[in-house]
Amino acid sequence: MKHSQRNSRHRQYIVAYLLAALVMMYVSYSVPRWLPGDFVTAMYSSSHVTLNAEQEADLRAYYTQRQGFGRYLVDFFTLNWGYSYAFLTPISELIREALPWTLLLLGTAHLLSMVVGFLAGVEAAWRRGRVIEKAGVGSMTVLEGFPEIGTAVILLLVFALHLGWFPAAGGETAYVEQSFGRWALDVTHHLALPLLTLLLAYFPGNFLLTRGSMVMVLKEHFIETARAKGLPSLRIRYAHAARNALLPMVTRFGLRIAFMVTGALVVETIYAYPGLGTLLFNAIAMRDLPLIQGIVLLSSLMVLFVNLALEFVYGWIDPRVKHAS
Amino acid sequence: MMKRWMGLLLSILAVVFLFTRPMPAPAQIREIRIGDSKGDWGYPNPYRHYPRGPGYVRMSWVFDTLVWKGEKGYVPALADSWSYDPARMAFTFHLNPNAKWHDLQPLTARDVVFSIAYFKKHPYTWISVDDVGRVEAPETHTVVMYLSKPYSPFISDIGGTMPILPKHIWESVDNPAAYNDPKAFIGSGPYRFADFNKAQGTYLYEAFAEYYQGRPKADRLIYVRSGQPLVSLANRQIDLAGIQPDMAEPLRKKGLVVIKDERGWNKKLMINHQKAPFSDKRFRHALAFAIDRQEIIEKSHRGFAAPASYGLLSVDHEMYHPGTPTYPFNPERARALIESMGYGKGADGFYERSGQPLKVELLASNITVAGQSVADRDGEVIKMQLERVGIRVDLVNLEQATTDSRVKSWNFDLAVSGHGGVSGDPRILNEMISSQYGAGSVNSARYDADTELNGLLEAQMTEMDQNKRKEIVYKIQEVYAEELPAISLYYPDSMSAYDPEKGVAWYYTPGGISKGIPIPQNKMSLIK
User: Fold this and answer.
1) Which of B35, B52, B435 is closest, CB to CB, to A46?
2) Interface test with A, best of B200, B203, B425 (most A CBs within 10 A)
3) What pTM was computed for the model?
4) Which of residues 446-505 of B touch A (CB under 8 A)?
5) ipTM of the shown complex
6) Pairing of strands B414-419, B266-271
7) What confidence tens digit (pLDDT) does each residue in B176-191 have?
């Protein structure tokens, strides 16, 4: 493919993604407004404050000011994401505080489960038919069907309640003065159980997917050729077969990013882990429209960005994609 | 001989020394950690905390009120003493001369005068200062508040709920909701606000050493978000948290003290009394007779609840009327009442009239009790009970904000709801019955159809004599239970557990903190 053709295709990708981003921005602007109920009702329904008609009207007028989509776009690009009704704090500040925790938990869980799942899947497929492969496939199929909420509760009961090895809640021990090293250990200590829960949830799928793709690849003629040439088994396994089995895994990774915010909601809630999922959950419960819009938009854009990046990664991993018309 | 006398003298001196030296002061507690399932309740000042109990309590550590509710009723806070003069309709408060702001400025009567004026200009939804007329400061530490008309909940609503603001800080603030300067958190309470981490849902307070009631028992007070209080309490990662009643036994075995609240929160069935057939009192009575509250408690709450008074006020309230009408479970009576309205059973066993089936929609959702969302199956049990009588029920489970929104706009038939405050000041009756007081509340029946009831509600607000007020409140309960614009179902058990080894005895405040907050985090527990 000529260089100019490739550039034109890249441009098409980018234009398509920009259009998709605009649609997503409109969706994130309009959908939260369709939610029944409003901030005043949600905030005051379980309150010890009983509003009279006048107080209610004043509050409702204050919190339901309508902002047009054009203004919303301008504000977005000038990084003026507005104030959260509930926190009375800039949205960008709230997201900035919660995002690192989500990235730490979800990012680590995704990466670890992908790398370990991929390696285990490759090895299992290579040992197809042996006891270890059968046991692996069986146990992973069972684990794949096990809900995160169940795993989380069992891990909590065993490791936090009975053994007392790990804390039951939070991302760190609040308000303890300690050195950076001890703080890092403390964060890791708090991360252990939620991370393990997510690994147990994500790992089986990655393992089974890789194993399945790998089994198909291992039947290909080029693998037989490689074997016939007497190449070392490690090279056949990874340089020839595994590379071709990697593509579905990368696609899965991209799709999983879509669940970056909402995916860990259950786990974040059970372990009271600070993150965007918990922030979004509370924002929806309180009808905090500016905050809902901000988080939904951020997560949508993250999905778009990752998928755009993957378009290029595909070509790099598998040159056939690059040369496909 | 001399040696013997000297020995005796020394022995006597030693005994005298041992018995007369001052008792050692109780050891200062380094920190107290309180667990909370939600974590975030806003910033702890009057204009930035969430309008819910936990938000108010977080503010109450920083801002003191004139009086405060302790374990045995009202106790002095910023006001050492107070009195009411009916002839002048005036409350006089004598302030504690040692009271200081956290920036060490003295707290005087001028601050109290300023606070009332500021809340008139910038309303604080927790209190109403409408009935406070003139406020004077005849002396540095004396305040006189003249009422424009008698206001019986004054001590509860204003004396015991209104935070006093420092004049020297707030007099230059025009937009209090947007004011987020560190000075916005300078109060006169036992703790200084040090930090609120929004992502973690944690709060840090530090003891105010110059507090006028003495240095608080714990140097630091920390709130942490805890998804599983059972585990966190058992592992001593937190010292106090609200718990589900089922957790009580395992925690007791782990050495924690479990405390139970009085019955101050009631689950109730909201009725759309503005539309037929609910506008007919007979139908509302039929619903009450058809519902077996004990069955709801057994099936939906494993027995951890108690049937509520149909008169709304808690059975633990000092003004609870034991003669309030009741509706013991009686399906036959329910059927008779429905049939008296012209309904007859159809072929399918359900009631119908003129070919139209008697079908109602029941909204149910998880209700937030004391800051914790509690899942239950009340909707399913009530549906089953009403269908056993012959009323077809369409059960709709919705998320709470959606249910509230529909109830608020009268777009419902029946809805399972609930609220606290029923053991606090009887003003709650006005708020939960009359639209004049509770138009903005989703839990208020907003029932104005009975003129006698309306008159009684008005009268109890202006009756300053407690005994006479009690008579009126008795009558309100009678009429309300007879009219039955909403049905109080039960009081769920509300419990907390704490670690006694920390040296703090927590308790549920009778009548609830301030306006009836059912949380055992009374600041008096940390004051020596």
Assistant:
1) B52
2) B200
3) 0.82
4) none
5) 0.74
6) antiparallel
7) 988 889 999 999 999 9
